[in-house]
Amino acid sequence: MLVHVSVRDIALIDAVDVELGPGLTVLSGETGAGKSILVEALLLLFGARASSEVVRTGAVEGSVQALVQLEGADARQADRLLAASGLPTLEDGALVLRRVVSREGRSKQLVNGALATVAQLRAVAEPLIDFTGQHAQQALLRPAAQLALLDGFAGHDALVERMGASWDKAAALAAELEDLRRRLADKEQRLDLVRFLLDELAQVRPQLGEDERLDAERRRLANAERLRASRAEAEALLLEGGDGQADALSQLQRALAALQRAAQDDDALVPVVRTLAEACALVDDAGRALRSAAEVAADPERLAQVEDRLDALKRLMKKHGGDLAHVLAAGDALEAEAVTLDSAAERSEELERRLAAAIDDATATADQLTARRKAAGRKLGDAVKVELPALGMQAGRVEVKVEPLAAVADAPVARRDGHGLSSRGSDVVTVHFTANAGEALEPLAKVASGGELSRVLLALKRALLLADPVPVSIFDEVDAGVGGAVGDAIGERLHAIAAGRQVLCITHLPQIAARADRHLVVEKAVDAGRTVSRVRALESTAARTEELARMLGGREITTATRKHAAELLARGAGGAPPAKKPARAKKSA
């Protein structure tokens, strides 16, 4: 159970510490006082989505921390989950959860002092709490919610998961087969095109880097005469001279000889002599290279061949995109596609066989789910029927119907018997209800009033919690739209639920508050010019009577109202202060 909760800088709460105990704890207070804020802060500890909007204005960050004391099977389960996540295990059954939300929207989670991800926090904390929010009645009207509710009661999570995996496998095969069939529809046309493209590539037979080599050859052939003249001129200037001028090599050699004599008398000229000697050697090598180089002769026929080849390569590159590397890759892809298309018929038959087997597997799993759901539906209906008289519906009846899911036209995955198939199986679950003797059962969404819906929801919750107990249950204003005797009946059932677990309930009904083992009041106050929420524990019968009177009479609290409140408290399970240590709530220093 939750032993201690500490909230800092969350919405209207600046600093609140609350000590809790077993049984039914009620939170009351004026609308807008911050009751739901306290619950939302608690849900952050159980993995709810964190937003920077929850941080109190002016604060850098907000935080929530709780000490949860576990024992027996709950402690063993928590230890298994902690160990699986690599987190510190329980110490004397104590689990410490902490969530910090920054103004920037980032959150930090700690489990038993160790940093954790939100997923790790949720994996450890979610099995410890059952939350029923303000809109649970409306959610209960949705068929998907009724299906999930029945599956939760049946406790066949592994089978539901297997159903989802079977469906996913069948759906993936169906999608693959559909894609192949689309390609088969124009197979011959596509295969003709693929073969044409492959023939075109085979005729050209491009080589990687070939375009660059051919382009260099084209430039040489196109400028053969200019290249020849330039080479001859350079060779003459270097080695032969002309127009009465000595060649460059001879002049360099004369300069070298002159400086060699001078260098005998001046050491500073030695580096220059060395440089000239290297220049003579380089010029000589260059001249000899020019003289021995192959003559580039004009060859119009070869030039035409090169240009034709380049044009062919460019057409391929334009058609297949990019450079020759892309062309060669496209060729590989076309060859693979040709093989696929050639064997498409065989592949289609194989996929059809595999899809049929996958659908049979999914159908078998769905049939198992149907059988279990029908059995669980009967048990759930009986369990709820037992609860209804205590909630003021002596003639109330509930039947959980499990009916075949309608087939969807052109569904990619369908059963052979014509019924529908989905990732949740082949069933539609609807809760049927009547509050009156002799009246036919009708879908809950059609016949239940607001007050009846609240009571049916509570009866369903009671049955679920008996089937799958959790240490902590939170009810956030599930009494909306009811009052009087119905409110008293709901309070009685909430107190009965709390006999086996810790229950926290936000309520506006004094009939429910009177049943509490401990009563906390959430109030708004002004501190240093700012509105804050405070939590105050009612530790005496007089304090509880006064709060019940406020809930009964509003602003005008009369002697009669106080007397009525005292009578409610005397009748309720919490008629006397709890024998155990009372809850205390205080603002932290």
Q: Termini separation (Å)?
A: 25 Å
Give the strand line-up of the largest sheet. 7-6-5-4-1-2-16
What is the general shape? elongated
Classification by helices and strands:
alpha+beta
Helix fraction bin: 40-55%
**Can you tell me the CATH topology of the largest domain?**
Rossmann fold
* Low-pLDDT residue spans: 573-589
- Under the CATH scheme, the architecture of the largest domain is 3-Layer(aba) Sandwich
User: What kind of sheet is the major sheet?
Assistant: 7 strands, antiparallel
CA gyration radius, whole angstroms: 43 Å
CATH superfamily of the largest domain: P-loop containing nucleotide triphosphate hydrolases
The counted number of beta strands is 16
Number of helices: 20
Describe this structure in words.
It is built from 20 helices and 16 strands. It is elongated and about 135 Å long. The protein has two domains: 2-134 and 440-586, Rossmann fold, CATH 3.40.50.300; 192-341, no CATH class. Residues 573-589 have low confidence and may be disordered. It has 589 residues and is an alpha+beta fold. Helix 5 runs parallel beside helix 16 (450-467) and helix 10 runs antiparallel to helix 11. It has helices at residues 35-45, 72-84, 118-125, 136-140, 143-154, 157-185, 187-204, 210-222, 224-240, 248-263, 270-292, 300-320, 324-342, 344-387, 444-447, 450-467, 484-497, 510-513, 541-553, 559-571, and strands at residues 2-10, 13-19, 24-28, 61-69, 94-102, 107-111, 114-116, 129-132, 397-404, 427-434, 442-443, 472-476, 502-506, 518-527, 530-538, 585-586. The protein has a seven-stranded antiparallel β-sheet with strand order 7-6-5-4-1-2-16, with helices on one face. The longest helix is centred in the middle third of the chain and has 44 residues, at 344-387.
